[in-house]
Amino acid sequence: MILHYKCPNCGNDMRYDTALETLSCQSCGMNEEITEHPEHLITATFEENEVKEYNCNNCGAILITEAETTATSCNFCGAGVVIADRLSGHLAPAKVIPFTISKEQAMEAFKKWCKKGFFTPTEFMTADRIKSITGMYVPFWLYDLNSSIQVNAVGTKVRKYTRGDYIYTETNYYDIFRDINLDYVKVPVDASEKMNDDIMDKLEPFPYDQLKEFKTPYLVGYIAEKYNFTDDELLPRAKNKISTNIDSYIRSTLSGYNSLTYQDKKINTQNLKSHYTLLPVWMVSYDYKQSEHTFAMNGQTGKIVGKPPISYGKMGIWFASMSISLFILFMIILFLGEAFGEIQ
Fold first, then answer.
1. How far is it, in rounded angstroms, from Cα 257 to Cα 261?
2. Closest among 304, 296, 300, 303 to 279, alpha carbons compared
3. Residue 258: per-residue pLDDT
4. Buried b / exposed e across 95-109, counting CB within 10 Å, b at 16+?
5. What is the per-residue pLDDT for 126?
6. Partners of 23 in the beta sheet?
7. Do residues 256 and 274 lie in contact, with contact meaning Cβ atoms separated by under 8 Å?
8. Continuous segment of H or E residues that includes residue 152
9. How many CB atoms are located within 10 Å of the residue 191 CB?
């Protein structure tokens, strides 16, 4: 089933408004509260063998989508549509964090970010080569995890003291046992095969206090995809994400010893609950010197992740100036040292 949201006032397309958190008409400006079935919701169905092809309700054009796509826009008329069949049953998200940064705000923020690069080429910093900027709802699993930890270790405390003409070293050994229980809430792991895991990890944190119950109107005007991996398949990644934190916490309970030797460390992490969630990401494609650079922006916080090109000319000038400055500083120190010696 294809969902197409039309304005009840003038019949034109409606999109999700990040500022008002409503559906907003692109023509007359009418706003409508977010509900699962707002007024003037137009639906159409497609056959099972047409899961990658359907007709736009607005202009009749044939649109092709990938099997994972759940929301998109018509390339011909720009109408935003939601493919509801791909958001039902076990494919239905439980939660969503809506966009709060509009496309215009994302463009402006990206331009400002480009100008902050110390070694970024001057031509790149003009930010006038943006090829495309796309708002995407990326599928994530949010895990509530519990870790039961038992640690056996041997710790030492060393004391040195002097008695007469001798220096003594006294080493005491301690058997240590820790029984720890840790809870982790909403550990995010992206479930899209297309998205770069490192980039998605660096976009964190998302403001989970902004989580809302999922409703399809939030997707209107954006691209959205369903998950490629189940929560069971991605559970090892979630466990790996908290492993460093677990190790840090264990060490914090073992302070005060000069040395530690682990005899046994058992960590049992279980998934208490997982939430299929859509999180907002702006993807920016940027042309520079006949190559394409891709950047990602957190659609709630504005945090940008990506590697801008490096100007080796700027880098060379910086190193040269640093070398000259260090040389001048060295000569001043040398001169002052010689002058001080003559005074002596």
1. 10
2. 300
3. 93
4. bbbbbbbeeebbbeb
5. 61
6. 16, 32
7. no
8. strand 130-163
9. 23
Q: Check: CB of residue 282 under 8 Å from CB of residue 92.
A: no
pLDDT < 50 positions in the chain: 39, 42-51
**Radius of gyration of the chain from Cα atoms?**
29
Tell me which residue of 99, 72, 100 sits closest to 84, measured CA to CA: 72
Are 187 and 142 contacting, i.e. CB atoms less than 8 angstroms apart? yes
Q: Counting Cβ atoms within 10 Å, is residue 294 exposed (0-12), middle (13-18) or buried (19+)?
A: middle
- The Cα diameter of the chain in Å comes to 99
Nearest to 278 by CA among 5, 82, 94, 35: 94
Q: Are the CB atoms for 189 and 271 separated by under 8 Å?
A: no
Residue 194 to residue 210: CA distance in whole angstroms: 25
Please give, one letter per residue, the 3-state secondary structure of 273-332: EEEEEEEEEEEEEEEECCEEEEEEEECCCCCEECCCCCCHHHHHHHHHHHHHHHHHHHHH
Please state the φ and ψ torsions of residue 183, each to the nearest 5 degrees.
-115, 135
Neighbour-count burial for 112-130, b at 16+ CB within 10 Å, e otherwise: ebbeebeebbeebbebeee
Work out the angle at residue 112's Cα, subtended by the Cα atoms of residues 107 and 116, and round it to the nearest 5 degrees. 145
Question: Which of these, 35, 45, 49, lies nearest to 84 by C-alpha position?
Answer: 45
- Looking at residue 316, what is its pLDDT? 58
- What does the chain come to in residues? 344
Question: Tokens at residue 67, please?
Answer: 């099997």
What order of strands is seen across the sheet that includes strand 31-32?
14-17, 22-25, 31-32
Is-contact 218 36, C-beta < 8 A? no
Alpha-carbon distance 310 to 315, whole Å?
8
Phi-psi region of 29 (alpha: psi -120 to 50; beta: other; left: phi over 0): left
CB 78 within 8 A of CB 57: no
